[in-house]
Amino acid sequence: MGKRAIDIANLDVSELLQQLNEALAEEWLAYYQYWVGARVMEGPMRSEVEPELLLHATQELGHAELVANRIIQLGGTPLLNPTQWTKYAKCDYEEPTDPYIEAILEQNLSGERCAIERYQKLAAFTYGKDHSTYQMAVSILNDELEHEHDIEDWITDIERMKDDLRKLRL
């Protein structure tokens, strides 16, 4: 962090770096959860949902890059070893042992809701104190909110499709 930035920052930079490294770990885990889930997923609407999950994965990777760059700008060191990811992350990585599309989507929905909490907390922590980190947090938060909406829509579509099939059987 530049000298003037340190002078005007009205927050605990070491606490901010801790939160950012936690967010970085969560973004890497989210990237992999989306990516591997899209690869192993089975069930209805797979062909429609898979490319979108891969897009979400790419966006999570972009978030990781933003967060890592901010850590470096603040004079910190991003996590250097993937074995640290699960130690730092407050959002769980859920191994996709059930490849059914609804199970994969529910896991991703849980991860998005945790990410939303992460970036709300980070935005609140930096509001009026570190404008660059605040703007980054709000931008990522908007992406995470959009991801949550997408997943909820897919789950709703699958439920409606199942309801239609049940009606046809009656």
Structural Rg:
18 Å
Largest sheet: none
Please tally the helical runs, counting DSSP H or I stretches of 4 or more residues.
Answer: 6
Helix/strand/pairing class, anyone?
Answer: mainly alpha
Strand element count: 0
Low-confidence stretches: none
Q: Which percent band covers the strand fraction?
A: under 5%
Helix/strand order: HHHHHH
Shape: elongated
**Fraction of residues in H or I helices:** over 70%
Mean pLDDT: 94
State the end-to-end distance. 66 Å
What does this structure look like?
The protein has 170 residues and is mostly helical. The chain starts with a helix and ends with a helix. The chain is built from six helices and no strands. The protein has helices at residues 3-8, 13-40, 46-73, 85-88, 101-126, 131-169. The chain is elongated, with a radius of gyration of 18 Å.
Quickly list its features.
170 residues; mainly alpha; 6 helices; single chain
Short characterization:
By secondary structure, the protein is mainly α. The protein contains 6 helices and no strands.
Please specify the SSE layout and strand pairing.
Blueprint: H1 3-8, H2 13-40, H3 46-73, H4 85-88, H5 101-126, H6 131-169
Helix pairs in contact: 2-3, 2-5, 3-6, 5-6
